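Morning run. Coffee first, then this:
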Amino acid sequence: MTETAAIIDYGSGNLRSAEKALARAALDAGLDTKITVTSDPETVRTADRIILPGVGAFADCRKGLLAVSGMKEAIEEAARCEAKPFLGICVGMQLLATEGHEHGTHKGMGWIDGTTEALCPDEPTLKIPHMGWNDIRLTDHGKNHPVAGALAPGDHAYFVHSYHMRLTSAESLLATTEYGGDVTAIVGADNIIGTQFHPEKSQAVGLKFLTAFLRWRP
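And here it is:
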């Protein structure tokens, strides 16, 4: 039976790159999954899996998402009420937080307890934004997670960001990376997972992660 995975188009994110990467992951894994980029809330509501990308500032992405009539409600119905697998990427992950502290304080979706805050590396020579390839360090919770646990020690992913999530509960922290201190790389709770890195730009490691997400049945 064909599944559908909806990538939400709200004016932010690497939509086509995400679409191509997810389609490649599904093809390589032999999965019958239709990947759709959509700004239609009904398509999101009826999809089997939901992906929320995001590039830019927290407040701008939040504003863009809320500007699509009915989209916030569709996402909440599908992901929160029906517990369908949900993936947030980069700012799409940061929006899951309780609050975002970029250019003021802005309310997040509140699905993962924590705040989105500026990166403050211990080493003054490290540049912001953090841009490039970094290793993924799974926590104990991450090692046992069906999606995050698909990654292995030494796997590297591609990051581009100036902010990251600080979590209230260690149980929601699935992986970190090192950039002048620990930086949140993967978060998760129940049917929700989010990555600070870009799996669609992370080549074989990203495809491995996306394949695990497409196979995930929380």
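The helical segments are 15-29, 41-46, 58-67, 71-81, 91-94, 140-143, 203-215. Good start to the day.
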